[in-house]
Amino acid sequence: MNVLRCRFETLSSFITAIIALCKDTMNWLKNFFLRTFQIKPEDEVPEAVAVNFKHNVLVNTVELSFYFFADSFWSINTILPVFAASLTDEPFLIGLIPAIVNAGWFCRSYFLSNVPVTCPKFCRFPKEWVYLNAYHLLY
Q1: Of 10, 40, 105, 137, which has the maximum CB count within 10 A?
Q2: Domain boundaries in the chain?
């Protein structure tokens, strides 16, 4: 009993649909980047900046991509587990190292989230951000 039926009768109709999907995706990407690289008149960007805007965005994006690629080789989340793997064969301990390293970024907001709430001099905006910052740690 064939429960699943393919909506494409032939291979050529499937390939045609894939090509149409690729064209639609490429058109969407092209329009997205055209909108991204446009400077609106209400932004009041100086002419010297606007002239090289597309070039600067492209070069800075490529530079950031290379930085993150290089960062993945010497990151503490990469090197310490490799070092721990040479010391032990326990996968739980090896996987716990990046979790402990990254938990350090969140401990500060977890332990200090009550300080601005109890202080009456703080305005409402920072209080809301403190709750939002520590919310993911509670659940």
Answers
A1: 137
A2: 12-74, 76-139
Distance between CA atoms of residues 83 and 88, nearest Å? 9
Cα 132 to Cα 85, 118, 125: the distances in Å are 36, 16, 11
Query: Quick check: 49 pLDDT over 60?
Result: yes
Phi/psi at 7 (nearest 5 deg)?
Answer: -85, -5
Rounded Cα gap, residues 49 and 51, in angstroms: 6
> What is d(CA 94, CA 72) in angstroms, rounded to the nearest whole number?
17
Residue 124 has pLDDT above 80, yes or no: no
pLDDT of residue 105 exceeding 70, the answer is yes
Phi, psi at 6, each rounded to 5°: -80, 135
pLDDT reported for residue 7: 66
Burial 98-118 (b: 16+ CB within 10 A, else e): eeeeeeeeeeebeeebeebee
Rounded distance between C-alpha atoms, residue 84 and residue 81, angstroms: 5
CA quadruple 114, 116, 121, 123: dihedral positive or negative? Answer: negative
pLDDT in tens, 67-95: 999 888 888 888 888 888 999 999 999 98
